Every structure is written in C-alpha cells, then in structure tokens.
C-alpha cells in the first residue's frame, strides 16, 4: 500500500490555473497533489548574444524554491550569492525540455524566459515545473501571435514530465515526498504529446534495478504524461 492510499498507477490530483499574474505574457499555477509551482513566461525582443543575426530565438528557464516550500525554512540562494548544483541542473532540464518542442526559427530573434517558483514542495517539483512551464510558454506564444509579432506557431507539440520509481518493491507512478525519500529507484521522465522521449533520469538509490523495471516505469510514465497533457489542453483552452 502506498502512503497516500493511491493505486500503483494512480496520479495525484492535477489542477492548472492560468492567468495568475498580471504582467507576464503567460502564467499559471500548477498543483500536483501538494506540490504547487508558479510558472511565468516573459518575452524579450532580443535573443541572447550567441544567437544575434541567426534568425532564431531561444527559450530558457529559471527555477527556485521559496524558503518555506518545505518542512523547514531553506535559506534563499540569493543570500548565499550562488545557486546550488541542484537548482542549476533542474533549470537546465526545464529549458531543454521546453526547447525540444519549440520551432526557434518561427519564434524569431527573441528570448522567452520561463520562471518556475516552487511555492510548496511534496515531491516531483521539477516535473511540475516542466508541465506548468509548457502552459505558461503556450500562453506567451498565443500572446505573440495575437499581437501579430509571430505569424507561424512556434509550438510544435506538448511536453510534460512525471516521476516514477520503485517503492517497497513495486513500480509506482507520480511519487510524493514520502515515497521519493524512501524509493529504491527514482526516475523522472520527460515525454512529448506525441509520446516521444525528451529525457530520462533514473537512478538506483540502493540495489540496481532490472531492465524489465525500466520498461515498466516507462509504461507508467507514458500513462502519466498523457494525463498531464490532457490537463494542459484543458487549461489553455479555457
């Protein structure tokens, strides 16, 4: 039995509220169980220096956790003067995941920064950030097209992410903190709306896991991301 009482292939509740900030070109608050992430997409009318005169745009991401997103207060990284390795790794993952489904030629020479701020953490924050980040980015692209700034839709597909792992010897979908902290194997899977893999992060926390387990986790991830894509579609069509 999972601590939450969910079945092995059952997701936590999902909600995505759009238009939650006044000024960002795209924004949403995604809730996956007790993990809540605020995602905003901000458009700049110039690309990063390495893309000047290339005709291509760029999508990047920043990620952070508010001090009381967890059980105890965490110090703001700005106070220490540097980001942790974990933060840098996660925001690079978010950026890679979003760029995988963007036609940067169609975007033109501009940059969109997707900020993902964890308000409350209960496992799977990077996955929620990717899933919600896509919604914020989609809304920002809608804004650009409505203004006539972009004439061809740069968004080629959905992308969403989900955690899967081996908990108490069983393959489970969408780990919360209680499961994540005790999992024998922990994985994060980034998958497009068409079912293509963008990234797989999976590691054994103790004993190695079998190839068959990886296949089972991939199948669970495909089911979970399909549900997340459905939630994305419902959110942007409101």
UniProtKB/TrEMBL annotation:
SUPFAM superfamilies for this protein: Ribonuclease PH domain 2-like, Ribosomal protein S5 domain 2-like
Origin: domain of life: Bacteria
Record: residues binding phosphate: 86, 124-126
Keywords: Nucleotidyltransferase, RNA-binding, rRNA processing, Transferase, tRNA processing, tRNA-binding
Domain Exoribonuclease phosphorolytic per the UniProt entry, residue ranges: 10-140, 159-223
Record keyword Nucleotide-binding present: no
Catalytic function, reaction form: tRNA(n+1) + phosphate = tRNA(n) + a ribonucleoside 5'-diphosphate
EC number(s) on file: 2.7.7.56
Alphabetical list of PROSITE patterns matching this protein: RIBONUCLEASE_PH
EC supergroup of this enzyme: transferase
A Pfam family that the UniProt record links to this protein: RNase_PH_C
Segments forming a coiled coil: none
Subunit architecture: Homohexameric ring arranged as a trimer of dimers.
HAMAP family, A to Z: RNase_PH (MF_00564)
Family: Belongs to the RNase PH family.
Protein function: Phosphorolytic 3'-5' exoribonuclease that plays an important role in tRNA 3'-end maturation. Removes nucleotide residues following the 3'-CCA terminus of tRNAs; can also add nucleotides to the ends of RNA molecules by using nucleoside diphosphates as substrates, but this may not be physiologically important. Probably plays a role in initiation of 16S rRNA degradation (leading to ribosome degradation) during starvation.
Protein name, entry field: Ribonuclease PH
């Amino acid at each position: 039995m999972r601590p939450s009482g969910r079945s092995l292939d059952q997701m936590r509740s999902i909600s995505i509220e759009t238009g939650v900030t006044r000024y960002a070109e795209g924004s949403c608050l995604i809730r996956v169980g007790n993990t809540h992430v605020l995602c905003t997409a901000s458009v700049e009318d110039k690309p990063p220096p390495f893309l000047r005169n290339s005709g291509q745009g760029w999508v990047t991401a920043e990620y952070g956790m508010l001090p009381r997103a967890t059980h105890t207060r965490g110090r703001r990284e700005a106070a220490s003067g540097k980001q942790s390795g974990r933060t840098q790794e996660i925001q690079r993952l978010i950026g890679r995941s979003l760029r995988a489904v963007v036609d940067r030629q169609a975007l033109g020479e501009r940059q969109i920064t997707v900020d993902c701020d964890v308000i409350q953490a209960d496992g799977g924050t990077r996955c929620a950030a990717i899933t919600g980040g896509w919604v914020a980015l989609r809304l920002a692209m809608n804004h650009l097209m409505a203004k006539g700034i972009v004439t061809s839709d740069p968004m080629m597909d959905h992308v969403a992410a989900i955690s899967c792992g081996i908990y108490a010897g069983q393959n489970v979908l969408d780990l919360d903190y209680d499961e994540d902290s005790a999992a024998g194997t922990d994985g994060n899977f980034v998958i497009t709306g068409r079912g293509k893999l963008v990234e797989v992060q999976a590691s054994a926390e103790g004993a190695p896991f079998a190839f068959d387990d990886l296949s089972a986790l991939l199948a669970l991830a495909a089911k979970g991301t399909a549900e997340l894509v459905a939630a994305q579609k419902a959110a942007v069509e409101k």
